[in-house]
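In this section we walk through a basic example: taking a raw amino acid sequence and producing a predicted 3D structure, encoded as discrete structure tokens. The instruction is simple. Fold the sequence below.
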Amino acid sequence: MVSSASVSVQSKETEDPAGSPTRVLVPSTLGNLGLSYRNRTIVGLEIVPKGARRRLFQPLKTHGRSEFLDEALGCLSEYFAGARRTFRFELSLNDYDLDPLTVRVYVEALQIPYGETRTYQKLALAVGQSGSYRRVRAILVANPIPVLIPCHRVVPRRGSVGSYIGGEKKKQWLIKMENRNKDGFATN
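The resulting token sequence is shown next.
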């Protein structure tokens, strides 16, 4: 099943100046995640933020609860437990200065079904850049919303898991978890 998250990207001139996003540090199987959101739209997800980046996020226990945050935490917990295959969040890349190819790569990554992988080469071909698989890899490693934009599903053709913003071990864990649970039930 394909992720049903939708991505919006506006030019800097038309973007809604809604202020700074709310940043919360939330627990997960991968370690603490830095979740950034504005209204009901996720604008960032960092895997185990460190140092100065970590200090940008308010710990969950000191953050006021909201319906959206509870929903997001529930969905992420279900995903990491192997019980959720899709996310229905609005995702926005408007906080980032992205070129059209980068946006196409992220949108194409959203089309990769749960439990499946594509090679960097196939993804490059799908976005009309057949000779630019290294650039596609670099774009995916810089993904500002990993897991929800499933860049972990893109691998080298030689069989390794390849680079990942959260590290190769976390990418390998995500791929194995999805593969184990892709037939509709968790087989932990």
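Looking at the output, two observations stand out. The beta strands are 6-8, 22-26, 33-38, 41-47, 58-59, 90-92, 118-119, 154-155. Confidence is low (pLDDT under 50) at residues 11-16. In the next section we compare this with other chains.
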